[in-house]
Amino acid sequence: MLSSIVENQIKFYAILWLLLLHPAWAEKKVDFNQDVRPIFSDKCYFCHGPDAGDIQGDLQLHTFEHATSDRAGAGAAIVPGNVEKSLLWQRISRTDMEEIMPPQKRHMPLTETEKQTLKTWIEEGAEYDKHWSFNHSLKR
Ligand code: HEC
C-alpha cells in the first residue's frame, strides 16, 4: 500500500519534471534564422546563395529543397539527421585544404563554433524557416 503511494508520487514528480524541462530543451534547438542563416550568408551564400548569377558547384543552400536534393548520385549537401552523410559536413570538417568549404583562397574559414552550430542543426533535422507568423507569435 505504502509502496504504491510512493510509486505514484515518483511517477507524478517524474512527469512534472519532464513537463517543466521540455520548454528548456526546445529553446536550445539551433534556430535557422538566428543561428544558421548568418553563417550561410556570411560564408556560403556568396557562392551557394539565392542569387542565380553566381552559383558555384551547382549548389544552393538557402532552401531545404535545394540543400537536401540529390547531387547526381553523390549524396546530398544536407541529409537531415545524418551529419556523416551530409556533404556539407564533410566539406567543412575535413582537413585536406583542397576541398574545404569555404574554399581556402577566400580566407574566411568557419570558426569551430560555427561548425558545431551547423553540425547540431543538421543532427536536429536541418529545419529551415518555420512559418513566419507562427514563429513570431511564439517569441516574446
Ligand atoms: C568562393 C565560393 C565558395 C564559397 C564561399 C563556398 N563554396 Fe562551396 N563550393 C564552391 C565550388 C566552386 C564548389 C564546386 C567545386 C567543389 O566541389 O569543390 C563547391 C562545392 C560545395 C559542396 C559540394 C557539393 C557536391 O555536390 O559535392 C558543398 C557541400 C559546399 N560547397 C558547401 C559550402 C558551404 C557549407 C559553404 C559555406 C560554409 C561554402 N560551400 C562556401 C565554391 C564556394
Automatic annotation (TrEMBL):
Short name of one Pfam family: PSCyt1
InterPro entries: Cyt_c-like_dom_sf, Cyt_c_Planctomycete-type
The name this protein goes by in its record: Cytochrome C Planctomycete-type domain-containing protein
Organism of origin: Rubritalea profundi
Residue span(s) of domain Cytochrome C Planctomycete-type: 44-104
Entry's Gene Ontology molecular function annotations: electron transfer activity; heme binding
